[in-house]
Amino acid sequence: MNYIIYDLEFTVSRSTRYSSEIIDIGAVKVSPIDDKGNLGVVDSFHTYVRPSNKSVLSTDTIQFTGITQKDIDAAPLFPEAVQQFIEWLPDTYYLCSWGPDDKSKFLSHCRTHQVKVDWIRNHNDIQKQISRALRKEGGSRQLGLSQALTMCGIPFDGTQHRALDDAINTARIFIHHFEHLKLAENSAADEEGTKSKLVYSSGDDDKHNPFGDLAKLLGPSNS
């Protein structure tokens, strides 16, 4: 079986006129690498995505992600970018992300751009299971990726808030906890009434909040 660990990055906007758009797709394929069934990263995928509604990146977006206007100007629009991703996917796979927001964004973008969602299948949010496993005392708060890595004794490799780097690091946690994960089979095409909702919450403790850095960047705004 193949396990696709992916991550998305979005535009950051203070305006309510524009919803955040996907600007970065990164993924790795995790598969058995020996006859003992040990898992490893065997392939990767990456593309930037040019936003459809607001093609000029905000200063906040550039500051938070490190993605430049030059990166975006040369990138495909979402329909072409996601098609490249779909063509890269193997015949059978589980899709795994750190948190629920990436799936929601994929769904909303596919529906906006009239792209079929039948490829979004066997999707699992591994953040919830791994957070529960690492919080043996029973805490309910979800762990951010960096904190989970630290608790596993795994140093972060690369740059945070870059899709491929985050996907690679998520894959390292996935492999580390694989024996304790229970992955569900499902199909987005069969789901009804799914709505996209991406919430950036400042929270009281940024170490436990995966979007704490973003909330701190945005801060209070009167716009």
From TrEMBL:
It comes from the Bacteria. GO terms for molecular function: exonuclease activity. This is Exonuclease domain-containing protein. InterPro entries: 3-5_Exoribonuclease (IPR051274), ERI-1_3'hExo-like (IPR047201), Ribonucl_H (IPR013520), RNaseH-like_sf (IPR012337), RNaseH_sf (IPR036397). Residues 2-183 form the Exonuclease domain. It comes from Paenibacillus gallinarum. The keyword Nuclease applies. Keywords: Exonuclease, Hydrolase, Nuclease. Residues 190-223 are annotated as: Disordered. It holds the Pfam family RNase_T.
